[in-house]
Amino acid sequence: MSLTSLPLVEISGAPRERGRQYGEQTRELIERALAYYAEAFAHSSGLTWEQVTQRAGRWVAPSRAFAPELVEEMEGIAEGAGLSFLDILALNARGEIIYDSTFGSMEPDGCTSFALLPEASGDGHVYAGQNWDWRNGVADTVMVLRVVQPGRPTVIMHVEAGQVGRQGANSAGIALNANGLGGRFDDSVGVPQTLVRRRVLDSDNLNAALEALTKSRAHIASNALVTHRDGFAIDLETTPGAVGWMYPAEGLLVHGNHYQAFMPPQLAATYRPGSADSLYRVPRAEAGLRAVRHASGRDEARKLIHTAMSDHLGHPESLCTHPDEGQPAVKRWATLLSSCVDLTTGDYLIAAGTPCDHEYERVPWNLYDGDTL
């Protein structure tokens, strides 16, 4: 199955078995991802991929302690794809590797996330979504993954091939949208973001989802916007130290890649936003999404969301990001996809690429189909 050019993969069963299914179905995509990151880290740090995976071994113990079932799933992915476990772990910890000074320097993810509650959506629905901005070189590794796991909510996510978590929503009506945040805190080793985010999406209630963020000791700072179908949203700026939070204003919440809720004390004296464009992406998204409250129905609401997320102020580093031809190919950024999940109806919509060039399409699974709880 495919959504235009975006692969759709469904896995089910116990952790290791669903991992094997994942690896078998996406072997070629995972190999592309490995090839890209081998080039990217060689460019930024001079390290070989073998050196990267050796150093990535530092995340084995915290990952196994936090989510042993997801480590099993990663082991299954490696088996199914005919790769080593450390290859898959490195793909899942690539954000942590980027921030680790021993690996050189690569920029963190860009993204602009939003939540629209009934009072702001025009049609009375609850929406959650984002523009996912990252290296254009991984565009052909992006996929949609549906995970059916008895005893836990069914999860739909958009991920890079080989990853067990990133952004998505589940059959309990919980959506997670995430954004990179900058700043170094200390040298302790924490849990990779892909595992923290998957734990949120594996949660069958809002409290468990928030505890996955507030009680875990993540390795890096990251923003998480959690939306619930009952008309609630909260944004948590999680760090290896403190956690900050903020709520919607008049039913609208938007977050980018800079601290908006609080300033971690470890960074206060020297903090500078890692993504300068985040400083205008956020107000531009807010301005565009405020128009949605005037929509006359569902179709118009979704069209207005799409229009808002297609904004080009600051092009190419805009809300809808395009590759900068002045940069080396390995460093070019783009909006890899734009997502819009209707938590009221269960429709999971994706524009597979820059939203200005691609319409929202509905994936073939409804969020609330096949709930295994």
Automatic annotation (TrEMBL):
Residues 123-281 form the Peptidase C45 hydrolase domain. One of its GO terms (molecular function) is acyltransferase activity. Keywords: Acyltransferase, Transferase. Pfam families: AAT. PANTHER family: BETA-ALANYL-DOPAMINE_CARCININE HYDROLASE, PEPTIDASE C45. This is C45 family autoproteolytic acyltransferase/hydolase. It comes from Nonomuraea recticatena.
